[in-house]
Design goal:
This protein is α+β, with helices and mostly antiparallel strands and about 425 residues long. It is built from 15 helices and 14 strands. It has a 9-stranded mixed beta sheet, sandwiched between helices. The chain has a 3-stranded antiparallel beta sheet with strand order 2-4-3, with no helix packed on it. A hairpin with a 2-residue loop joins strand 13 and strand 14. Helix 2 runs antiparallel to helix 7 and helix 6 crosses helix 13. The longest helix is centred in the last third of the chain and has 25 residues.
């Protein structure tokens, strides 16, 4: 009920239906947009396959009429056949709705300090059968290697997907063209006010630390900044060895406390040769965890990591903390794996491209509903916890005096959370 109401209040159903209008056959009973959203709802509730819409079909009082399995399958094929045209239509609809959601979210919107942070990272998706473009991966597994981008909601929330790029399993982790395309798709998903005129930060691991990608971001102008991991080259390693002890600054924790056993410093000199003007190199050294094996690039018994930025007028300890928080992207990937990204269920790459859009819609709903309806620590609940505590709560639909009521049991521990969330969604303006 919470997800269905989120779809209705945000106008996502209208936007997707309008976007997929060209693919509706003249005498079709089921709207293509409704079919696609039904699959996305099934995925958000824990489904892994197209056939999992059966769980929605079993509750018409909540989800309305749901198409049969053959009808669902017959929609995926023409959408996959349309290729970029269908993907563009779905993405434009999502971007339009995202703008409304962020405006309604108010304090919960992911731009509290006037900055939107986009994290780009690769995901290995295993394949257990022969599928198009499934190949051996760099981890000696078999499957695909899509590239995802997520908007970071900070410590108070989770995150939402803004781009996915389906790639073969042998796609490189540091392919600049793929990072550029993922960044373009991500920026197109942001509300117009954040595409230009406001600061947007793109964070990556060392896969984004390439000349081509950094040059592309730099060419966009002052409104776009970067914080990308860097591979420890010999030039960087030698520069680290020359940093005097007085130049190291203690690293800090999110609460402002000094982090024990970690320091940061800024590098200068030859290691910046050939990189864009205004680029800064920040290096971090820390005592390794007990039992950790040092790498050849580490120095003086310390674990060494490095990242590049083009941000000015901010203490380097704060910049390092901001980059270190890129680890939240791993949480987003874990949530995506729990939302049907463990496996791409279809055979053709074009079909699985549509499936990735369905997964992103499901993740959007799992991010938008907490943004609009939940508060405090419940906003940080990830999909598995939402399913266990909210979506699996038993209820009964009762019709009396020409009105329908949804009755929850009083002894369910999170009934108040559900009813309060429903009230907040009800208070939002209706779309249109």
């Amino acid at each position: 009920m919470l997800l269905v109401e989120t779809v209705r209040k945000t106008g996502l159903d209208q936007a997707i239906s309008a976007a997929l209008g060209p693919w509706r056959k003249p005498r079709a009973v089921h709207d293509p947009g409704k079919i696609l959203l039904d699959v996305a709802l099934a995925v958000a509730l824990g489904g892994d396959y197209l056939a999992d819409v059966a769980m929605l079909r079993a509750e018409p009082g909540v989800f309305g009429p749901v198409a049969s399995d053959p009808t669902v399958s017959r929609l995926i094929d023409p959408l996959a056949g349309a290729g970029p045209r269908a993907l563009k239509a779905i993405r434009l609809a999502r971007a339009e709705v995202r703008q409304h959601v962020w405006r309604w979210a108010g304090q919960n919107a992911p731009d509290k300090e006037g900055e939107v942070i986009v994290d780009i990272d690769g995901v290995l998706v295993l394949a257990h059968s022969e599928k198009q473009d499934a190949t051996a991966t760099w981890k000696k597994t078999f499957g695909h290697h899509p590239l995802f981008a997520f908007v970071d909601h900070g410590r108070e929330g989770t995150g939402e997907p803004v781009a996915s790029l389906l790639r073969p399993g042998n796609a490189g982790s540091n392919t600049a063209a793929d990072h550029i395309e993922a960044a373009r798709l991500a920026l197109a998903q942001l509300p117009k006010a954040y595409r230009r005129g406001r600061q947007t930060l793109i964070r990556t691991d060392s896969g984004g630390g390439t000349h081509e990608f950094v040059n592309w971001i730099t060419a966009r102008g002052r409104w776009l900044s970067y914080s990308v991991g860097m591979v420890i080259t010999d030039a960087i390693h030698q520069a680290v060895l020359k940093v005097p002890a007085s130049a190291w600054t203690p690293a800090v924790e999110p609460d402002g406390e000094i982090r024990d056993g970690a320091w940061v410093a800024e590098l200068t000199g030859d290691c910046l040769t050939g990189w864009p003007k205004g680029m800064r190199l920040i290096v971090r050294k820390e005592r390794p965890h007990p039992g950790a094996q040092l790498r050849i690039t580490d120095a003086d018994g310390m674990r060494i990591t490095c990242f590049a930025i083009n941000t000015k007028s901010t203490p380097i300890a704060q910049l390092e903390l901001r980059h270190h928080q890129r680890a939240r992207a791993e949480d987003r990937i874990r949530a995506a794996r729990d939302t049907s990204l463990r496996n791409l269920p279809l055979h053709a790459t074009s079909q699985n491209g549509i499936w990735l859009e369905i997964v992103q819609i499901a993740l959007d709903l799992l991010a938008w509903m907490p943004m609009l309806a939940l508060t405090d620590k419940t906003r940080r609940w990830e999909p598995r916890r939402l399913r266990l505590r909210l979506f699996s709560a038993a209820a009964q639909i009762v019709t009396t005096a020409r009105r329908r009521h949804l009755r929850f049991t009083h002894h369910w521990p999170w009934t108040d959370v559900i009813t309060d969330a429903a009230a907040r969604l009800e208070a939002l303006p209706n779309p249109g």
